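Can anyone check this?
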Amino acid sequence: MAMHDELVSLTAVELRRLIGAKTISPVELLDACIGRIEAINPAVNAVTATCYPAAREAAKAAERQVLNGEPLGLLHGLPLGVKDLEDTAGLLTTYGSPASRGNVPTRDVVLVERLRAAGAILVAKTNVPELGAGANTRNVVWGATGNPFNPELNAGGSSGGAAAALACDMLPVCTGSDTGGSLRIPASKCGVVGFRPTPGLVPNSRRLLGWTPISVVGPLGRTVAEACLQLAATAGLTAGDPLSYEIDPLSFATPEPIDLSTLRIGWTEDFGCCDVDGAIRALFRSRMAALKPMVRTCEEVSFDLGDVHRAFDVIRAESFVAGLRDTYERDPSVLGPNTRANYELGAKMTLADSAWAQAEQTRIFRRFQAAYEHYDVILSPTTPVSPFPWTQLYASHVDGREQENYYRWLALTYVVTLTTHPALSLPCGVDDAGMPFGLQIIGPFHGDRKTLAVSHALEQAFAASPELRRPRPDLSKLAQPTPSLKSIVTAPPILDSTSSNHSGPSMV
């Protein structure tokens, strides 16, 4: 088991190199990942449906390809976890909704197609809030996902299961998606990397409003290089996403080198419009003080983003109305409180509201560009509060101020969503409560490579500092299950996770 523990802690980049060199077998790696899931998942509830028998067959086939000297993909033999919002052929996909408890898709979304084509081996789905609504990963189908640093606290969301699985070294490749911060927030709260790419860089074939850039899919990773490897396997044009565009995916495989001493950094605690707890502000300022000697300039910058909250309300609500109208009109009671609130908010809006919001987003985008005349990247905290108990649906108060809805506390990330700029959450030590703290690194318009290059350089610099480096959870404290994580499950248990015989553990 000690050997397995050592294996799963290696990065995806190193694991892929060892598979290509015939030093380790895809079968050996899969067994190690399954062992880690079975040992740790009962404590955090990050992984939901599994397909171990099919994964073992795929791993054996991957092993044969290596031994036969066949060409190998970027992710050949690497076990994969897919967020439970993405359809996976043959594997239960519930979207965290009781209405989809028995849904086993017959086709993969484009994202999963590309990951499989690159050689990744689908092993499991990772937990989400119902329909991805909110940044606390809990639903009545699977229960709640606990934070690996303290399972009684939340893991963020909506990619909370993926972030927690990565933090616990359950799987080396995990997918995510992001509307208001769903890649960045769980990455921050679990101490991993979450990258929101430019809309269209990674195709999102499940987006109903195809020309709306608010929702993207993208990579999580324990390191920036892991995120880059997944990005290289998934980026590029497809007819499945009208925002996708031609690009050389392999150009993302390795982060570009950058000299930190030349870097011009602008920073903001709150974009002039977001509530942030005083302790997080103080911690962020101390991080900027530590960063300042490493770079050319590190200066506070101010923003005027207009009525950014109202613009996000309207644009976010549009996507919920598009996706939930039929369900709501058939039976509103099947929707949870977050998704139902989003639908009802949107259903009351008018075409005039929509037109105003689209125009305001354009104004916000144009104002935002001014900062990049003076700075290479903008830094902010990723989240305004330390992780709170998962039993609390959302952060109802920030810095003593009541939040007007369940997602207002996500403002640090959703204001960036509206700009369409690429943004990455990078682990940067822990906060006063000993929980992971993330820096949000916002690159220039379509500056995905630069965002990743800067993030990688900062990651390398932070690695030398016990205060700034990526924190790791104490897995010995996760040896016992956390029964309360399943306490919100009210529906009967799921017996099978796929349409075929399922020999993996029941996660409900």
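Reply from J.R.: I decoded it. Residues 308-330 form the longest helix (23 residues).
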